[in-house]
Amino acid sequence: MKIKNKIFYSIILIGIILSSCVKDKEFDAPDIQCSDTEFILISIAELKNMYNGETIQIQEDLVISGYVISSDKDGNFFNTIYFQDEPGNPLDGMKIELELRDAHLFFNVGQQIIIKLKGLYLGESKGVYKVGGVFTSFGNRSVGRLPKNVVFDHVLVSCKENVGIEPTSVAILEINESMLNTLVAVTDVEIKQEELGETFAIKEEETLRTLVDCGDNELIIVNSGYADFQSEILPDKMGTATGILTKDNNEYQLIIRNVNDLSFNQERCEDLVDEFTSSSIFISEIADPNNNAGARFVEIYNASEESLSLNGWKLDRYTNDNNEVSSSIDLSEYIIEGNGLLVISPNAEEFKNVYGFEPDISVSTNSPADSNGDDNIVLVDPFNTIIDVFGVIGEDGSNTNHEFEDGTALRKLSVFSGNPVFTMSEWTIYNDTGDEGTINQPQNAPLDFSPGVR
């Protein structure tokens, strides 16, 4: 009977112990003593100015303060606290690395912290400044985690009331260096179309996702593969993304604290149509002056009344008998006016010396605008459709009806649209040794040419 009683009481005791265990992260923060000591502070900017290109240990009794903006509660931050110099409209921000799990229980978002710097290390990595302990590898020092047994010797909690943090509202194109390591709210963004349906992160892998605005400007968002929300599906609407702005070399990145930092409840951006096709755009002249190779050019004409963006358009050159593109000119930056011309030169300085004005587009030598008369030139729209062709791809132009060596290929005024098949009757062609139907009469610049005039 005594043995049965002992077993019975043991079971009860185990039940009591198990029922008292913490079952989730919703438990009370430990009671830590705050500090109301008035310290003489230096600014974060002054601390950064101490960095000389190498990780250094701070020897002076210096103190900085800041307001906590990160939280490791949901697992997207680990052994790191980001802080900024003011709760709103900050001038600067920084991070401290430390060996402290569940740091959010000690340092809440919005809480002012005081950091005693003496003995800590200051460094910079990928454009981001940080303080902490030291990590040594092969004799090289870098900032590492501050050991847990000294964390509270260096990082104090201020007794000042937690007034919360007001993130800096910003559009992607407005992001700049002054916002690094601060809390920002990036407005009017959505997850990139190609990533919809994906999870926040791949399990146990740091994963980069992409925010994009309605102008297709992008911002990387960094998610931990160990975050509590790792397996959740990315939101499919548009809104504001709040997080700490960081940098990886030359690329800005955003780290959110939890899924609520993505407040996406608006309809996604409408697809912006900015690529157009038109058969009214065509090649109007290709020039290879007999007396000056530097005066070569290609001219494109718009026979319609409406201006057209050439976003996605290109001009390709197939050198001699090549079946593959030898060089290409991207025309995306340009708009061609209604009944207007674009003159493209491979030598802008010489072009101006010869013709008296600057070309509309200046490109490199060996480009489609620098043909020596036996190449084939193709105008292609944004949808990879051939709109216009001069010559026969795969056929060297020498001694053919599409040779313009030492001369010019001039589109007849009766032509008002491009032609994806070379048709000699649409052209007047001057050269030195061309086939029947061409004019064997070399042309000299500037007398025999009129770029920019149709």
From TrEMBL:
InterPro entries: DUF5689 (IPR043744), Lamin_tail_dom (IPR001322), Lamin_tail_dom_sf (IPR036415). Transmembrane segments: none annotated. Residues 433-454 are annotated as: Disordered. This is Lamin Tail Domain. It comes from the Bacteria. The lineage of its organism: Bacteria, Pseudomonadati, Bacteroidota, Flavobacteriia, Flavobacteriales. Residues 277-420 form the LTD domain.
